Amino acid sequence: MVNQEAIQGEIQGYPDLIILGSTGSVGTQAADVAAAHGIRVRGLSAHRNVEAVEAQARRFLPDCAVMTDPEAAADLRLRLADTPVRVLSGFAGIRDMIGETRTENPHGLTVENSILGEAGLRPTLDTLEAGHRLALANKESLVVGGELVMELSRRTGNEILPVDSEHCAIFQCLRAGERREVRRILLTASGGPFFGYTQEQLTRVTKQMTLAHPTWRMGQKITVDSATLMNKGFEVIEAVHLFGVAPEQVQVVVHRESIVHSMVEYVDRSVIAQLSVPDMRHCVQYALTHPHRLPAGDTVGELDLFSVGKLTFCPPDTATFPLLALAVACIRRGGALPAVLNAANEVVVDAFLHERIRFCDIPGLVTRVTEQLSDAANLHLYEEILSADRAARETARALLSRI
Question: What 8-state DSSP symbol labels residue 176?
């Protein structure tokens, strides 16, 4: 039997933790991992879920809690008046919390960023600038500002640990060799809830059908992105930046069982894969306790290959789901196109979630925005990223207004 206490005694602790987006799916799992392994939580942030943040603040007694909604911050301040927790407001509050948090922990401080959308980019940059380790679940940070983020990581020497299941798997597989020995990355995809559908069948897809993902429990926006395969396109862009490979070295493979979370092929044609039951808690725990591996206890189920029976793989249908190919084209073109793609997709998916457009309208609208802004220049500054983001959102809203 594994002696969990002995292992934890040998490890002698982990970095302190700030959880950004603490009430979302990944954020709540990060909180559970922290509680299970005695990780000290120094800060929390959320948008407006005051009750959930109050419960987390009383559970962990962090130095600081931030609500990006000002009214929610005022409410939380009153609720936590009997505690030593400092309550801040807005994204400026997040920036202050990241910059001002100091730790005497010899293992340092990890900021787990699971903020939704482009809004997560600024906290990613702030984390690296402050000298903290980054556990990154906010994929838009790399989609929108990948070159900026990776340059800052290299310059400061601060580590980025991916929390996405696929990129966490790739990160682990890359420990089998040198980066220069990598031939290609095999990025797995579940195929989404509409795997095998024809374009005609997609015209009858509803919002309720879209939000029923076959494998993962996620927020609404990312669930839609998974259904359109846009999420997988974003993950290709992430992999290019995070692992320093060319777009041509990333191959998407549909794997319906969601047991193999990704693979790396080396120049000797050996393929290293990471397998586990599909459970984000594995990825969160790995990121928060790296470079150590801890017993999962009751948090993650055991992989029983006999009950799985078989593992299947097939190519993605980019004719029926064109956003994957569009994302690959955008990262190949580079410049501002990935930022334009992300912003356009956020606006169009929001319109779908408000039932203003059909599911089958999403790819065409996003594509039209990228075509109209295809000459956008390279991005070297955060302000330039914001400018490209605004232009794409305005263009997308203009197209939607004519529907």
Answer: G
CB 61 within 8 A of CB 82: no
Q: Where are the domains of the chain?
A: 4-171+279-308, 179-258+314-401
Q: How far apart, in whole angstroms, are the C-alpha atoms of residue 295 and residue 389?
A: 42
What's the confidence (pLDDT) of residue 215? 62
| Residue 94 falls in which region: left (phi positive, over 0), alpha (psi -120 to 50) or beta | alpha
| 229 φ/ψ sector (left φ>0, alpha ψ -120 to 50, else beta) | left
Strand order in the sheet with 250-254: 250-254, 182-189, 260-266, 271-275
Candidates 1.10.1740.10, 1.10.10.10, 3.40.50.2300, 3.40.190.10; correct CATH number of 179-258+314-401?
A: 1.10.1740.10
Q: Is 25 helix (H, G, I), strand (E, B) or coil?
A: helix
| Tens digit of each residue's pLDDT (9 = 90 or more) over 147-184 | 999 999 999 999 999 999 999 999 999 999 999 999 99
Check pLDDT > 70 for residue 255. Answer: yes
The kind and range of the H/E element at 119 are: none
Tens-place pLDDT, residues 296-305: 877 678 999 9
Say if residues 154 and 229 touch (Cβ distance below 8 Å): no
Q: What is the pLDDT of residue 403?
A: 86
CATH architecture of 4-171+279-308: 3-Layer(aba) Sandwich (3.40)
Q: Which of 359, 387, 383 is nearest to 373 (CA)?
A: 387
CA distance linking residue 329 with residue 324, whole number of Å: 9
At 339 the pLDDT is: 95
